[in-house]
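Side project, low priority. Logging it here so it doesn't get lost.
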Amino acid sequence: MDQIRITNLEVFCHHGVYKEENVLGQKFMVSVILYADLTKASGTDDLKYSLNYGKICHFIKEEMEKYTYKLIETLTEHLARALLIRFPLIEKLQLEVKKPWAPILLPLETVSVVMEREWHQVFLSIGSNLGDREKNLNTAIDLLKADDLCRVANISSFILTAPVGGVEQEDFLNGALEIKTIRTPEKLLELINEIETKLKRVRTIHWGPRTIDLDILFYDRKVIKTDSLKIPHPEIRNREFVLKPMCEIAPDFIHPVYGKNVSQLYEELLNKEESIGRI
């Protein structure tokens, strides 16, 4: 991926653990590597297709002067997120914030914090079978869009599907979403739980009816297995209501465990169901 590098931008501001640092202030130095696709900019010689490093430098200065943080870690995290949100062309960045006058009563050149942050590609399944199903889905999508750390990139058509699991209930309205997020998988799960709570999702019956159901299908091509998270979702290859809308928005996305794309998994499922139907 193409890069634009800014090295040792000097900003005088008031971050630090000690009161004197907050009152008197001190110099900080910021270096950042910005990853972006600059093909269109290089081909057209037009700044609007590139990252204006002048504006970025002034933005960094303004953000560092706007707040007062005790820790360089907090300052670096804030700057990384703010840059990704403010400048949509940035896909990934590596940011270093240096503190050359660290008050430790020992000689040192500088102390610094380095962080890498990026927009991750995530696919979600979404479903509802209580109340106004379409309204529930659209409200959940709006709540995702309202989160600064998420961008909704693609939305499938909604399809009506029969429930699974043997519980007698209404049919589901299902779909799939592609989002970009700065959130970690764990923090994304927290957001999903908050959205489900706002839409009054109640977990009383396993596989039971629900106002909203949001599941993480894929997070980049990561494989995660913890008590709270299993990514990719373990039931993907068995669920037509997942694979059919996924085929609409990402047919070529490759499952990181099975090594097959979504279209191939959907075709296998249909063939399997057809074979069972013949028995």
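Brief comment: The chain has a mean pLDDT of 92.
Revisit when time allows.
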